[in-house]
Amino acid sequence: MVAFVDALAVKVGPQALPGDWGLVPRAVGTVVFVHGSGSSRHSPRNRAVAEVMHDYRLSTLLFDLLTEDEALERCNAFDMGLLGRRLGEALAWLRQQEAAPRRIGLFGASTGAAAALQAAARHPGWVGALVSRGGRPDLAMTELGDVQAPTLLIVGGSDTEVLRLNRIALRALRCHARLEVVPGATHLFQEPGALETVAHQAGEWFSTHLHAQGWI
User: What CATH number should be reported for the domain whose range is 3-211?
Assistant: First the structure.
């Protein structure tokens, strides 16, 4: 049984951004969800993926990188400097929590994937694995070569432009990386079974790579 600590105060800078922390007994690691533009920790898609993660013995932290007022300005969703900085502060906060497993994975979607890649590049000792779902890794292109965490890029087969950008990003990554294409899926993976496929691919990736690591 997973205990969700709702409206948890994730102390990111002065904003104390709220989040939902799903704590799994004897967890392999904690997966931090990094939402893209137009999404939030309340998204049914994100929560459905988090529930699958719990079956893989992964705790989850869903929180919003922007305040409600900041989210009203669409340009903030593409401010990689702001999002990357907030995520780095959130990771620092998580590492201070006694109940949190020390192995951390990042699950980024859309623009959030770029912020996740930035954070992984800047904090290599903190991030043990990373998954991008329909992500925009091209927005972090200058830092892709510094990412050390094993990285899985998942893209819908019908999301043609994003798929093109992910293929370019895959060539720029120097870490252990793989691109998985979900046949027939579009950007939001709304097709029957598509999101479930993503969730299990991500769960297996995190479970394998976080469990294999001996660092804390």
Answer: 3.40.50.1820
